[in-house]
Automatic annotation (TrEMBL):
One Pfam entry name: NERD
Superkingdom, taxonomy of origin: Bacteria
Protein name: Nuclease-related domain-containing protein
Species the sequence originates in: Arthrobacter methylotrophus
Family matches, as InterPro entries: NERD (IPR011528)
NERD domain mapped to chain residues: 28-100
Length: 217
């Protein structure tokens, strides 16, 4: 059986060169860890993979999560956004503030994965964009937001979808083996004295982590 957990969320975010600043990368990591905590709860019924390279040359961005049930593959991107009302009828906006960057098409991700998994019989579904509010107690709304090539899901609402998705049966071993080739490896840490290693707490994968600093998109 190939069900289980592979990799760890936000491994690739240890390289923050893609981000505006380290604060942006830190908040982005928390969004991935929140989704990780939810998806790991389905690991007995499906294969749950975290932090995979996009199989395209020169791409720094990663696929945050992939879940395999039977021969179906679900790709998931996690975001933490400012609270507010997001919509896309007059361009991409939060309230009346223009936010064009949230409308970036996700079609290239599913196309690249379809090509990579060719020959395995995999069926790559429309990717999900899971969006979390960056402020506890201050919700966001995405019901009028459409992102090309993806379906937007507001935080915890990914859970009922996952309950239905994992009914596809145990993950296909050939597909899981192929996806494992894309897992981002954590960089080897510099060896520390034993006393220092004991003083560094492990990074949690919790459902109740929110960003207190200025949120970002």
């Amino acid at each position: 059986m190939s069900n289980g957990i592979y990799g760890r969320a936000a491994t690739g975010l240890q390289d923050t060169s893609w981000a505006v600043n380290e604060n942006v990368a830190r908040i982005g990591a928390k969004g991935e860890q929140k989704t990780e905590g939810l998806l790991n709860g389905f690991a007995k019924k499906a294969a749950v993979l975290h932090d995979l390279r996009i199989p395209l040359p020169g791409f720094k961005a990663n696929i945050d999560h992939a879940v395999v049930s039977g021969k179906s593959v679900l790709l998931i991107d996690s975001k933490m956004w400012k609270p507010g009302f997001y919509w896309s009828m007059l361009g991409y906006r939060r309230g009346w503030e223009k936010t064009p960057h949230i409308g970036k098409s996700q079609e290239y991700v599913s196309n690249a994965m379809n090509a990579f998994l060719q020959g395995t019989g995999a069926k790559v579904l429309t990717p999900r964009l899971v969006v979390w509010s960056s402020r506890d107690g201050q919700p966001l709304s995405t019901w009028m937001l459409n992102v090309p090539g993806a379906e937007v899901v507001n935080g915890l609402r990914i859970v009922p979808f996952m309950r239905s998705f994992v009914r596809g049966g145990s993950a296909d071993p050939a597909i899981v083996r192929r996806l494992q080739e894309l897992l981002v490896k954590a960089p080897r840490a510099t060896r520390q004295p034993a006393a220092d290693r004991l003083s560094v707490p492990p990074r949690p994968a919790r459902l109740d982590v929110y960003a207190d600093a200025d949120p970002f998109v």
